[in-house]
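Bug #77: duplicate submission created two jobs. Keeping one. Sequence:
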Amino acid sequence: MAFISHIGNGYLYPIVGIFVSIIDFAATKMLFPVALTSFAIELSIYGVVKLKFRRTRPCNLIEGVRNLTKMQDRFSFPSGHAAAAFLMATVLRYYYPPLTIPLYLIASAIGISRIYNGLHFPSDVLVGGILGFISAKLAILILF
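Kept job's structure:
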């Protein structure tokens, strides 16, 4: 589960963008602006919510819950990994509808891994996923 959680780390998303630009250069003309706008929306909201709620992570709050991976920051709510994973799944499915199910399965696995690894409560992942989805949908609406 630690490996699945690491798939959701931020450094992987530019690699996905590079891969898409290699296999489908025409799509990158709009995919990059949509992804960047989505992340601008998501990160703005995420940062405010994270600092406002300051929710303690399960591994720091509940006895017997261990942290199985490295923490990116101190607070739990919302899950940034889930937000980014669902954001990317939503952006990519807009351009590649046949990949919808695999994209959302990967995003869901990343979210579940964050709970399993003791870093998030289920509500952290749920809200993070919704935040990522809505951020991507807003960017698509703004740019199209």
